[in-house]
Amino acid sequence: MGRVSAVIEIAAKADQELADAFAHLIPQLSKSSPPPSVAELAEMIASDASDVLIARLDGRIVGTLTLVTFRIPTGVRAWIEDVVVDDSARGHGVGDLLNRFALDVARAKGAKTVDLTSRPSREAANRLYQRIGFQPRETNVYRFDLEG
Q1: For residue 4, is pLDDT > 70?
Q2: What does the pLDDT read at residue 92?
Q3: Residue 26 and residue 103: Cα distance in Å, rounded?
Q4: What is the pLDDT of residue 12?
Q5: What is the number of other CB atoms lying within 10 angstroms of the CB of residue 117?
Q6: Strand runs (DSSP E) across 49-108, as ranges?
Q7: What is the DSSP code (8-state) at residue 123?
Q8: DSSP assignment, residue 48?
Q9: What's the whole-model pTM score?
Q10: Residue 125 · residue 118 · CB < 8 Å
């Protein structure tokens, strides 16, 4: 199949097509998190802090990435979260296009840096991030479970 020409866009509305795409994609990213509802997608899309990016091939949504931007005392920062490309479209440049589009959006919003995390087991994703120019950070990542 080679590299494909995906169309990347910022989701403008939450509808059943978008919810169905997330219902298909999220289980490929996380077995423990349910996909967002139409109402939750609408909340994300309406928020100034998040941009829901989608990748389309032949009109079908095959990938998504959420870019979160926020101001802190040291400047505007951005995080890339929940990157997932459908199994059928992996290895053909869709993730690269999604991430580069997100970097352009973050830059346009004045972000000084863009961070992301990726499990070590996601070897292809980690190679992609390093190929794009993300650098590993010397830091500890902590999580506090508010539900547990």
Answers
A1: no
A2: 86
A3: 22
A4: 97
A5: 10
A6: 50-57, 60-72, 75-85
A7: H
A8: T
A9: 0.93
A10: yes
Q: Exposure of 24 by Cβ count < 10 A (0-12 exposed, 13-18 middle, 19+ buried)?
A: middle
2: confidence class by pLDDT, cuts 50, 70, 90? low
- Domain count along the chain: 1
Query: What does the H/E/C string look like for 29-47?
Result: HCCCCCCCCHHHHHHHHHC
What CATH number does the domain containing 101 carry?
A: 3.40.630.30
Strand, helix or coil at 10?
strand
Q: What six digits make up the tokens of 84? A: 């997932």
Q: Judging by beta carbons within 10 Å of its beta carbon (0-12, 13-18, 19+), is residue 134 exposed, middle or buried?
A: middle
Select the more confidently predicted residue: 3 or 116. Answer: 116
Q: Which residues pair with 50 in a beta bridge?
A: 68
User: Which domain, by its residues, includes 31?
Assistant: 7-132
